[in-house]
Fold:
Amino acid sequence: MTVRERIASSAENLTAIERKLTAALLADYPYAGLSPIQDLASHAEVSAPSISRFIAKIGYSGYQEFQRNLLSELKEGQRSPIDIHVGRRPLQGSFLADFMARASSLMAGVAAAVTDDQFERICSLLADPRREIHLIGGRVSNALAATLSFHLRQLRGGVYHMPTDTEVWPEYLLRMKPGDVLFVADFRRYQPTMLRLAKKAQARGARVVVMTDKWLSPVARHAAEVLPVPIESGTLWDTYAPALAVIEAMATKIAEDNFEQAQTRIRAWDAARFTEQDTSK
Structure:
């Protein structure tokens, strides 16, 4: 269980001072908790003894153990496929059946990681025609951004899948207006360029939405919404199946909630497509 998960599980039993401390910790997670206890106390405007009592309440023997766990989470977020392979449990019996069982188990856990209220908020952001939507992902996770951008472009205008060439990014940043959305998919072995892009987009007033894992991409520091989806399959590769399921759920909900608009757009899209008859002439 991550430190963030322990905090969440204790939320109902926190005092007003502890909720204030929690807000400070989660606003810059996990980095706020890595500072000396006196610095955290000053930043959160609580006392050092209050922090010590809070640490004990969420199950740690002291501030040092609390920080060791935060550091462990940071290291976990940078693990390579080779690191993940060490100590893994081999798939058993039918490889395909066992792999699918693991992926299904992770997909079932999405509902615990993403609340209905958050899902609704993000869908509303992406559906709002007043907002332009910019999407991008990391080396592998860019496929998730591409899938969402393709579906959204069929439903509405003002959707841009950003290229991976950072030299082109200023064009998109300069286009962003306050209230526009930058959707970033960034999973462990996080890319520093995603963090810099999110920081610049936030400075322009854009709302950053990051889809990431439970260890949280650094992009979360600049995000209005964080979608932490489970990815640990226990195999050489993490699985993006739960993330793809969330992407498809968002695209489907937006289409169904705005069916008349979607219907008109899809018909116009299909009429404008280049068919075999077009290309044969």
